[in-house]
Every structure is written in structure tokens, then in C-alpha cells.
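During the reporting period the student researcher (J.K.) took over the structure-prediction task from the postdoctoral fellow and processed the backlog of single-chain submissions. One of the processed entries is reproduced below for the supervisory committee.
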Amino acid sequence: MKKIISTSNAPAPIGPYNQAVFASETLYISGQIPLNPETGELVSGDIAAETKMVMQNLKAILTEAGLTFENVVKSSIFLSDMNSFAAVNEVYGTYFDEQTAPARETVEVANLPKFVNVEISMIAIK
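J.K. obtained the following C-alpha cells:
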């Protein structure tokens, strides 16, 4: 069974996709960018602030689904510049217990939606 998860506390999709989809006991969260859901404006200029906004968007979606970061089993981080890795990793790490953190990959890409510097997607389980 597939259930769509949507919250006004995270940015609305900007294309033909949903914020997240539950398939059985697994939640697939679409990539989130540093878009402030209250203002519709991008957070930019400081990779730490951008990453925090992304993580807050992910948290809002997890909350809407009745989950927390403890339920996350896989993260994918996409960066426009791998030189941002340390700053992104520092912010990202504050949301997880290192002993139970999810599996993850971090990749540098040529471009991201709206030309942002960071996008993160997640998979979580009930």
C-alpha cells in the first residue's frame, strides 16, 4: 500500500512528485533543498545555514509521517562543491546519534534544483 505524506511545514513540491511516500513500512523522502517553507525563499550564502534548513525540512516531513531521525536508515547528500563537505557534515551530524546513524553517501554533482548548494533525501522505516 502506498500513502502520500505532505506537510505545509516543508516546501511544496516544485514538480510532479510528493514530499514523501510510505510504501508498506518504508518512508521515501524526496530530496529537500534549503527552501524556507514559510517564506518560499531560498536560504543561501552560508552552507551551514542551508544545511540546517534542509534538515529542518526533512524533520518536518518525518514528523508528519510520525517518525524521527532515529527511523532514518539511509541518506543521500548531494553537494555542488565537495569543499563544503565538512560544514555540511557538522550540521548533519547534530541530528543523529553517531552510534545509530544511517547509511549514507555524499556526492558532488554538476548542478542541483534552483542552483542550490545542498540537497538531501532520506529513507526511513517504522
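The committee noted the following: The two ends are 14 Å apart (CA to CA).
J.K. will present the remaining backlog at the next meeting.
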